[in-house]
Amino acid sequence: MLLNTPSSVTLEVSKAFLYQGSRLLLQLRDNIPEIIYPDRWGLFGGTVDEGETPAAAMKREIEEELCWTPPEPKYLLTWEAPERACTTYIFGIPLTVQTGELTLTEGQALQLFTFEELTQLLLVPKIPRMLPQVVEAIASPELTVAWQEFTAKKINWSVSD
User: What CA–CA distance (Å, rounded) separates 85 from 17?
Assistant: First the structure.
């Protein structure tokens, strides 16, 4: 489990690594200065409402953002940001439909990417740091093989934090 402990936590967020075969589905965040990491590729998800479990929030957010009812999310890890009072619950969800069947209601775009393609994107910074643990926790054979092939190439991330 990946854990960085801040002094106090006030905001709870659920985010999903959506995957299909050996690729990950990401969202190009809106280009609004008021949001964290505008105009970067990130994960789907959002705030956990009062009285809601992180898993329920994850399903609700996916339904709202993609107009798709996902299978039950698999809890992977918790990330606590030292720079913000925020706990992020990370889930893995297999994408069981084609991207053309999704309706994006938040963000500028959605797209499936290989690990190699991710290295060329402007990503939310914590994504590359989480990937080794996320791939291991998801335990999808296709994703695991793709990750092993990717790491064997020793490709550097071209876009830094």
Answer: 22
Other beta carbons within 10 angstroms of residue 113's beta carbon come to 16
The answer to whether the CB of 37 falls within 8 A of the CB of 29 is: yes
Q: The pTM is what? A: 0.90
Residues 6+ apart with CB under 8 A from 153: 116
Closest CA to 134 of 78, 88, 76: 76
Report the chain's C-alpha Rg in angstroms.
15
Average pLDDT value for residue range 57-61: 97
What is the C-alpha to C-alpha distance for residues 38 and 44, in angstroms, rounded to an integer? 14
What is the three-class DSSP state of 43? Answer: coil
Confidence check: pLDDT of 9 > 70: no
